[in-house]
Write a structure and sequence with these properties.
CATH class of the largest domain in chain A: Mainly Alpha
Distance between the termini of chain A: 17 Å
Structural class of chain A: alpha+beta
Number of strands of chain A: 4
CATH topology of the largest domain in chain A: Glutathione S-transferase Yfyf (Class Pi), Chain A, domain 2
CATH architecture of the largest domain in chain A: Up-down Bundle
Oligomer: homodimer
Largest interface: A-B, 44 and 43 residues
Strand order of the largest sheet of chain A: 2-1-3-4
Helix content of chain A: 40-55%
Radius of gyration of chain A: 17 Å
Number of domains of chain A: 2
Shape of chain A: globular
Amino acid sequence: MIFYDCATAPSPRRARMFIAEKGLKPEIRQIDLAKGEHLSDAFRSVNPSATVPVLITDSGLVLTENNGIVSYIEAEHPGPALLGETAEQKGLVAQWNALAEQRGGQPIAEALRNGNPAMKGRALTGPVNFEQIPALAERGLQRVGLYFDLLEERLSETPYLAGETFTWADISAYVFADFARVVRMRIPEGHTATRAWFDRIAERPSASA
Amino acid sequence: MIFYDCATAPSPRRARMFIAEKGLKPEIRQIDLAKGEHLSDAFRSVNPSATVPVLITDSGLVLTENNGIVSYIEAEHPGPALLGETAEQKGLVAQWNALAEQRGGQPIAEALRNGNPAMKGRALTGPVNFEQIPALAERGLQRVGLYFDLLEERLSETPYLAGETFTWADISAYVFADFARVVRMRIPEGHTATRAWFDRIAERPSASA
């Protein structure tokens, strides 16, 4: 397998953590987003959407999107199960992963890409340039606060988002909670359940993969 | 099973089509979004996020988010497989479903909720009110055009988004392509592969479920 990565970006970090938890060792190719390598003709011939992560399977299939990559890997390498074992667990993992993406990943990206002068004209990923919308950056910051509240409410009830065990939903939510620092947002002091969960995940070898 | 639905909305339509394709007959409870029933205390005690669809399993588990609901149902009722059979298919289904959500569902929602006077103060789903951002409505319309281009490019190569068979990715992409009419966008005349795909899906009994 070949894994197109960018060591500093949150999206490929999600797939990278998943791959590390599975104990897999694909060939890694770094794409330097800061240098615009994802917009090069060479990389766009791999993924026309100009995004990382990308996984190329041993059979040559090109998979993009985190959920595409992890669905493939889980089916090929079922242990340890990270997308749930029972039907109920599978439902909860997919649900909490979706909530992390919508309520964590999306507003952080909106705040960063619409608020940072270095991302002028790059308000969305992909090959097409979109101008920044300052009101969207503001709204994003407000929503990141609500994201931390959502995590705290859930993690006060259960050790991991989908229940008793660490899953893909925790990887997604953890990567976004960590990446919120780029918009100067952190898990609030009083959110003790979330902070304990974050610290437990940070100790896993995959968190520094 | 109990399924909280809204007959006129695209999100519950996705899960409803999936349930119909599986031949399941849950108890249906309609939530009238136009009347604000999703924001009532009664419904928020079912789903604090105030969104449909919601599925309550026979064991009493409450599942929200389309991907949570369909992951549960596919595991409980594997046939016909709608999330892929091989690892490669599972990867492609999850990938194309994610692309449909990000590049179809999201911009249509942005265009509608930020551009329609009837949705003033309701620029996002959920219990918190957010003001409309007119620039986001404009950007949404532009992105819906790119969504139709993405579908045409893919469907010129393969009969369904994830390959030879109809899957969850087609349900998502079809529901968004149809719902684009609310922002006065339609599959362009020249997009013949997409139009043929759309017509094939429209003939399935699940499309009018």
